[in-house]
Specification:
alpha+beta, Molybdenum Cofactor Biosythetic Enzyme, Chain A, Molybdopterin biosynthesis moea protein, domain 2, Molybdopterin biosynthesis moeA protein, domain 3, 6-stranded mixed β-sheet, 6 helices, binds adenosine monophosphate, binds magnesium ion
């Protein structure tokens, strides 16, 4: 049995960034990260632009200017202003080369075709210079930048319609168990509703991994072997739930062995989630999570999460850990370190009821784990405890 720390290190060491490129239309690139630097194909703004509704001036040493025309946003004419002349102008309109300041309309009094300006006028005021944001050919966004709405807006403003981004892994979610019935079907005696696939699928969707297929297998060695063989040969990540423990009908370990999956660890000194398996075969990163739902989800957040971040070449691999004051007491049984379902709020954390690995009710109300190390046997109210914040 391996320690949590060593298990996490194994995951970090054995998952290599996928570094695969995929081209996405810009509108579908949200939440991907740029695979390459992007250099601007244009100057932005592409022309000298008025930042105000007002008047463009060719400055002279007098406050009065003769109005000779108007430039609306989108106009392409370039009137020539002599010193002492002005044109009416609007936010976003092109400022002609012969104008060297824009004055906001609130500071101007117009009488017929003459305007009189209030206050000091500074050279080039209220004019956005050509290429002020980015010059043509210069770095617009660096490799690795996450494509947020702002980034997508910015790149679209540069005329970019598609981007090269890091490909996300293909993921198979495999559930095992004869007792499992799909929700929506009648429940017969001895059966339960299969919930890990929807739960883990959603955990993946929350992290913006959408390339997920679901596979359901019975507790049958041959079926387990052949389904795992297929997904391991096809997918970047295989996440199996159940069948990895020591029961007579737990066939996952046996099938993984027969498929010559390299075992990087099996069994972690932790609660919940002791019978956790992590292995590799060719391109596939393989986790077999315990079937108990709370254990499966805990292992997902503590280990699978890190693997996914590493595959995506992200800098931060682990979930954020902070220290907070506990609102609750908790007595730990045994010497395994424990991840406790918890609710973190206003710098305090409450350890919730129902810590069994089979129970999800309070997991549904959790946004954090309290991590209780091996040597800690009791948490008292007001103790400082380590909190892991969940990505929900
Ligand atoms: P196992 O790890 O296969 O021994 O399963 C441990 C417990 O988790 C058993 O009570 C199973 O019925 C339950 N379980 C396993 N897989 C699932 C699943 N996909 N959905 C809900 N419960 C499950
Ligand atoms: Mg089972």
């Amino acid at each position: 049995m391996i320690s949590i720390k060593d298990a996490i290190q194994q995951v970090k060491d054995n998952c290599k960034p996928l570094l695969k490129e995929v081209i996405k239309p810009i509108e579908k690139s949200g939440n991907y990260h740029l695979f390459k630097d992007i250099h601007s194909p244009i100057n932005m703004p592409p022309f000298r632009q008025s930042a105000m509704d007002g008047y463009a001036l060719n400055l002279h040493d007098n406050k009065e200017y003769v109005l000779i025309g108007e430039i609306k946003a989108g106009d392409s004419d370039k009137p020539v202003l002599k010193p002492g002349e002005a044109v009416r102008i609007f936010t976003g309109s092109p400022v002609p080369d012969t104008a060297n300041a824009v004055i906001m309309q609130e500071k101007v009094i117009q009488k017929n075709n003459v305007i009189s300006c209030e206050g000091a006028i500074v050279l080039n005021q209220n004019i956005r210079p050509l290429g002020e944001q980015v010059m043509k050919g210069n770095l617009a966004l660096v490799k690795g930048t996450k494509l947020t709405p702002a980034a997508i807006g910015y790149l679209t403003a540069l005329g970019i319609t598609e981007v090269s981004v890091f490909k996300k892994p293909s993921i198979a979610l495999v559930t095992t168990g004869n007792e499992l019935i799909e929700a929506g079907q009648p429940l017969s005696y001895g059966k339960i509703y299969e919930s890990n696939s929807k739960m883990l699928q959603n955990a993946l969707y929350n992290l913006k991994f959408y390339n997920v297929t679901l596979h359901k297998i019975e507790d049958d060695y041959n079926k387990t072997y052949s389904e795992l063989k297929t997904v391991i040969s096809e997918k970047d990540v295989v996440i199996i739930s159940g069948g990895i423990s020591v029961g007579d009908y737990d066939f996952v370990g046996k099938a993984l062995n027969a498929l010559e999956v390299e075992t990087l660890f099996y069994k972690v000194k932790q609660k919940p989630g002791k019978p956790l398996f992590f292995g590799k075969k060719d391109q596939a990163t393989i986790f077999a999570l315990p079937g108990n739902p709370a254990a499966a989800l805990t292992c997902f957040y503590v280990y699978v999460y890190i693997a996914l971040q590493k595959l995506m070449d992200r800098e931060t691999l682990e979930l954020p850990r902070i220290t907070a004051k506990s609102n609750s007491e908790f007595n730990k049984k045994g010497d395994r370190p424990q991840f406790l379902k918890a609710l973190y709020k206003n710098d305090n954390v409450s350890i919730l009821e129902g810590q069994s690995s089979a129970m999800l009710q309070t997991f549904a109300l959790s946004n954090a784990f309290v991590f209780m190390p091996s040597e800690t046997t009791k948490i008292n109210s007001n103790d400082d405890v380590e909190v892991i914040l969940l990505p929900i």
